[in-house]
Design brief:
Structural class: alpha/beta
Strand order of the largest sheet: 8-7-6-3-2-1-10-9
Shape: globular
Strand content: 5-15%
Number of domains: 1
Helix content: 40-55%
Number of strands: 10
CATH topology: TIM Barrel
CATH architecture: Alpha-Beta Barrel
CATH superfamily: Aldolase class I
Distance between the termini: 44 Å
CATH class: Alpha Beta
């Protein structure tokens, strides 16, 4: 394990004003979004779409890392350049999704555990040769009646820690993603309680596995009310509760925390991140973004499967990257949206 390389890579991924682009949707997820817009669900269209996301050279000013799907890491862009090479050219660290998805947790109805540890050591070695320098593994925690169970929390925390250790042994920075889903009627207090529990447990398991915290990035959910909650918390309360949770669970040696958007609207995700970075507290880690839909959705709609729309759609995602880059430094204002 080259700890200095891991530290340097992690620092580059969450450099000031930069975040992570999650463009690692699986075939079923990507195809489902295409189908809603009437876009053909072919490999060529997925390649065209992902080429569009990286077309603007200025993306590297606001994006420190990009998470790819296995197919994309092996593809070339529309210009014939390997995707990993294109990312490096514009100053973005290439990454790869390595988990095999959340599956039903045996004997625990309504709960999931993420699989993919079998053969991971060998896959990581291959991905490193293909240019990936960080990886991502997502655990899914559902809030509901009598769940999450302790069994679910422990199973997912243990899997995340084993994955992270395997990554670092392969000189790959692990993004550790314990996501508490926003689905449900729960209020922000319940969200805080579950988020605190899984994050605390994850860092206990990371310590047991010997993971070097300076060579990883945490990708958590924000502490928000459930989608169907009758009284959803506002932007300032979300920011304060999220940071309070992090302060009590995340060691200061972690270089960066890159939030998932979790189904928030584009501007809502940006506003929440900005509010956290405006709290005025001297935080020990960088707070930034690792968004998928909240970066891509408007660009996908602008492109709409039409090759003639690529340039315009590329400018749309560049705008969203710029907005979130500003939020990562607490410099975002809604007027910036109107100006664009």
């Amino acid at each position: 394990m080259n700890i200095q390389q891991l530290k340097d890579t992690a620092a580059a991924m969450v450099a000031p004003g930069r975040g992570i682009l999650a463009m690692d949707e699986s075939h079923p997820t990507c195809n489902k979004r295409f189908e809603k817009l009437g876009i053909p669900t072919t490999e060529d269209k997925r390649k065209e779409y992902r080429s569009m996301l990286l077309k603007e050279n200025d993306m590297g000013q606001y994006i420190g890392g990009a998470i790819l799907f296995d197919e994309t890491l092996r593809q070339t862009t529309l210009d014939g350049q390997p995707f990993a090479e294109r990312l490096q050219q514009i100053g973005i660290v290439p990454g790869i999704k390595v988990d095999k998805g959340a599956k039903d947790l045996a004997l625990h109805p309504g709960e999931k555990v993420t699989e993919g540890l079998d053969g991971l050591r060998e896959r990581l070695a291959e991905y490193y040769q293909l240019g990936a320098r960080f990886a991502k593994w997502r655990a899914v925690i559902t809030i509901g009646a009598d769940i999450p169970s302790q069994a679910c929390l422990v199973a997912n925390a243990h899997a995340l820690a084993r994955y992270a250790a395997l990554c670092q042994a392969a000189d790959i920075v692990p993004i550790v993603e314990p996501e508490v889903l926003m689905d449900g009627t729960h209020d922000i207090d319940r969200s805080y309680e579950v988020t605190h529990a899984i994050q605390k447990l994850v860092f206990e398991h990371l310590a047991e596995q010997g993971v070097e915290l300076e060579g990883m990035v945490l990708k958590p959910n924000m502490v928000v009310s459930g989608y169907e909650c009758s009284q959803r918390a506002g932007v300032q309360q979300v920011a304060e509760e999220t940071v309070r949770c992090l302060m009590s669970t995340v060691p200061p040696s972690v270089p960066g925390i890159a939030f998932l958007s979790g189904g928030q609207t584009d501007e809502e995700a940006t506003e929440h991140l900005n509010a956290m970075n405006q709290l005025g507290d001297e935080l020990p880690w960088k707070l930034t973004f690792s968004y998928g839909r909240a970066l891509q959705q408007a660009a996908m709609q602008s492109w709409n499967g039409d090759s003639g729309n690529i340039d315009r759609a590329a400018r749309v995602i560049l705008h969203r990257a710029r907005m979130n880059g500003a939020a990562a430094e607490g410099k975002y204002t809604p007027e910036m949206e109107k100006a664009a």
